[in-house]
Amino acid sequence: MNSIEIRNLQKNYKNFSLTIDNLEIPEGYITGFIGPNGSGKTTTIKSLLGMIKPDSGEIKILNSHINKDTKTKENIAYVGDESGFLEESKLVNLHKIISKFYSNWDEELYKKYINKFKIDESKKYKDLSKGQKKQFELIMALSHHPKLLIMDEPTSSLDPIIRNEFLDLMQDHMEMDNMTVFYSTHITTDLDKSADYIVMIYNGKILLKGEKDEILDNHTLVKSKKDLIDNSIKNEFISLKEYAFGFEGLISDRKKAYELFESVKLI
């Protein structure tokens, strides 16, 4: 079963178009959503959350349409780069207000996580450290037992220790609730630690998707001087970035990459 299904999605802006013909995110796993800035990760996530309306196509979350089924919204949690919480609000008040929106809010679980991370509820949100803010946001997200957690670059500004604590809490909760995670990030070490599947988007289109280990085994990243590629070799890349004096690109056939670039260090 899939937690997310996208069919023939199209969203057009003046200088950018998002086109996703078919994307399925399996239930009960962590799927890492990767791609350079400006590739369409946030536009995709906003479409999933109903924050923007696609020009065409269909999105199903937990087998429902998010804007037509209010119960579905209760089963989704979101943690992003920015929380949306009022900076001047005390945590105790944020907790009191937000918990009322969820019929399945688990007060015992909330207190357990608050105590685990030693977060002082009497503080204002603005007075928390970056790490504490993200811990609090994740606690609020998990305390109503969501079936789907969507995250958009949640750990981008955190130090490695806090990032690991954040990911550990997320994974522990998954085992408890069989929760699905769709996780946009550019931090590859986070994906190495936690992801089961990978989806890569580039220039508004899905370039590759599949099990993480299989993708890592079969794909390789090539970085080298620009004079090592010509038009025929360019066709071997599924994505390619060229710079003034060099290039980097992804090849889906590791053996082919070694044949083409014997003297180049492959990643």
Write a structural description.
The protein has helices at residues 41-48, 70-74, 91-99, 107-116, 130-142, 160-177, 188-194, 212-218, 231-234, 254-260, and strands at residues 2-12, 17-26, 30-34, 56-61, 76-80, 148-152, 180-184, 197-202, 205-211, 220-225, 237-242, 246-251. The model has no long low-confidence stretch (mean pLDDT 85). Helices cover 33% and strands 29% of the residues. With 267 residues, the protein is of the alpha/beta class. The chain has a six-stranded mixed sheet, with helices on both faces. Helix 5 (130-142) runs parallel beside helix 6.
Secondary structure class reads alpha/beta
User: How many separate helices?
Assistant: 10
Describe the strand arrangement of the main beta sheet, using strand numbers.
5-6-7-3-8-9
Low-confidence stretches: none
Distance separating the two termini: 33 Å
Topology, number of strands:
12
DSSP helix fraction:
25-40%
Mean pLDDT over all positions: 85
